[in-house]
Amino acid sequence: MVSAAELETKLKDKLNTTYCTVQAMDGCPDKYEAFIVSPAFEGLKLLQRQRLVNETLAEEMKQIHAFVFKKTQTPAQYEEWKGANPQ
After folding, report:
1. Of 18, 27, 64, 74, which has the fewest beta carbons less than 10 angstroms from its beta carbon?
2. What is the DSSP-derived secondary structure letter of residue 61?
């Protein structure tokens, strides 16, 4: 079984992410939710971004029941989002 940490590490390495979180959903070890920020998403539409992530995690996806994309943003989009959503 693949862990959230393993998924995060692969995404960070392969997509050169500037921000990336992968968390198990509902305490289930094979359902994940991800928030990914990467310059690799520049010029890509939402579906293209999700396909890029799916291709990157192709082997791991065979072991996952569900993978939800919370956000897939470029660094500029993330900075704008952070400004509108202060924590």
Report:
1. 27
2. H
Write out the two tokens for 9: 């590490």
For Cα atoms 12, 42, 87, give the angle at the middle one, nearest 5 degrees.
65
Q: Burial-class residue 11 by CB neighbours within 10 Å (0-12, 13-18, 19+).
A: buried
Distance spanning both ends of the chain, measured CA to CA = 33
CA–CA separation, 26 and 2 (whole Å): 16
Tokens 């952070």 belong to which residue? 82
Per-residue pLDDT tens over the stretch 34-77: 999 999 999 999 999 999 999 999 999 999 999 999 999 999 99
